[in-house]
Amino acid sequence: MNLPNSVTVKEVGPRDGLQNEKQFIQTEDKIDWINMLSETGLSYIEITSFVNPKWIPQLADAVQVAKSIKRKKDITYAALVPNERGLQAALEVNIDEVAVFMSASETHNRKNINKSISETYIVLKPVIEQALSAGKSVRGYISTVFGCPYEGEISIDAVLSVSDQLFSLGIQELSLGDTIGVANPKQVEEVLTKVLDRFPREKIAMHFHNTRGTALANVLVSLNLGITKFDSSLGGLGGCPYAKGASGNLATDDLHYMLDQMGIHTGIDQEKLIQAAIFIEEKLGKPLPSHTMQTKRSLCNS
Amino acid sequence: MNLPNSVTVKEVGPRDGLQNEKQFIQTEDKIDWINMLSETGLSYIEITSFVNPKWIPQLADAVQVAKSIKRKKDITYAALVPNERGLQAALEVNIDEVAVFMSASETHNRKNINKSISETYIVLKPVIEQALSAGKSVRGYISTVFGCPYEGEISIDAVLSVSDQLFSLGIQELSLGDTIGVANPKQVEEVLTKVLDRFPREKIAMHFHNTRGTALANVLVSLNLGITKFDSSLGGLGGCPYAKGASGNLATDDLHYMLDQMGIHTGIDQEKLIQAAIFIEEKLGKPLPSHTMQTKRSLCNS
């Protein structure tokens, strides 16, 4: 194996994790949690989403959260933005990085954002342009890269096509998502090899879900191909397997455990990560599904 | 990656899985379950353990189980045997393969079998000799290969030393266990590289636990080094994270999902595997912890 010396872990729990949680987490608790995350050594936190609260009531307090957290200089505070209206709100609260999103699957894109893939480019073009003009960095997410709940297999060409368009619109980093957690390491190698033939590895991040237990194996093969950026959600938040609509986010604490044990530098303190996980677990009132948290509870009870 | 074309999955659920379950599973249910496992395409099933029932009451029905299951010709039915007395029982019921076990950690070995490592060789020598004389194949397990709950790190030399001794006593296959689920892929590569310098890869099996989510990543690096035999427990049985003494066995269904998706032949039918998992889950009366089973429940409920 040819492993990198260091990796950037991009914490998406406050957005991708919380957005699937039905129970509203109090705004103050979100703020406290993000402040705790800022003390763990993480250098990137996606704190919220400026979508219409009608679609994600959990993140209706995006402005308040973004305004109220204590920002540390060396941390990038990012937010998801679906359109120009969302961007205006994000810029008003001076978010550091804007993340736009779409799907490699035509059907999933329609179901998720009610637009065709080509219509989505038209919506995202001014968002990306204006964000860049405002001096913000812009990240793009592509979902269903490794499989779609409606279409099944997704061709690598479809992924490359959307990637091309997003980069040509100006995004600086691309996060490839295994939205339904079906990717296997061989497939990751195949897709990533073609992606890295076309784009520099520094611009590619991987966003795995652990729905079928393969996330860290997929991380491993990605590391071996030179990828150094991974998205994850603390405690596997948003991925509780017993909840409806389980998404199975890769847990930051599990990802960090493996990276740390392999001597890969992340700058993150695992103990502080666990403290932050315990905090949000208590607010949620239900166990977080990460292996680290399950093992912690098990060891405490035995 | 350089992946093998086919892999042998060694099902250890009826022994390694059940032995951690406090609630006694009725003998008939064990028999029915093993018969279901025999129909899944598995070629190897460790069905019980001939240990003193005082230590593992769950497996007190070893003789009855071994006598009553329907054996298929192309399946190896194995059992754990700690000593000559256990071997006699195993031979009386004509078990196909005998598995002996010890630890790479002096302290763990003492706590687990109440003997020093060198005393254990003396106990195992006649067991292995007599099993071989009776025409049985013999497998050896080494536990705590990647870390010990009492001693912490275990040196590769300690692992090689126990491996040497067991092979010189006559075992034909060696299963290296990550008993407490702490192994990381880099460590697996380091240990396995040295092990494979000394022993042929056909004689080595890996036995990972998923306690910290790394089992399939550890499988992946092992596959890449040419290992084609893996132990696992259906549904992650014996590894329920909410139970005391959670062991976190790698789930056969999760292992098989990844292998199958990568096009690696196992001969196993995933659907039949799931049916067998549902059967034992109902007998246990609590959810099995594998990702496959969690995802199945989640999809059914949503």
UniProtKB/TrEMBL annotation, chains A, B:
* Keyword list, A-Z: Lyase, Metal-binding
* InterPro entries given in the database record: Aldolase_TIM, HMGL, PYR_CT
Q: Which residues form a coiled coil?
A: none
What protein family is recorded? Belongs to the HMG-CoA lyase family.
Tell me which Gene Ontology terms the entry assigns under biological process: ketone body biosynthetic process; L-leucine catabolic process
Q: What is this protein called?
A: Hydroxymethylglutaryl-CoA lyase
Q: Which domain of life is it from?
A: Bacteria
Which organism does this record belong to? Calidifontibacillus erzurumensis
Pyruvate carboxyltransferase domain location is 7-274
**KW Metal-binding (keyword) present:** yes
Q: Which GO terms describe its molecular function?
A: hydroxymethylglutaryl-CoA lyase activity; metal ion binding
Query: Is Lyase one of the keywords?
Result: yes
Give one Pfam family.
HMGL-like
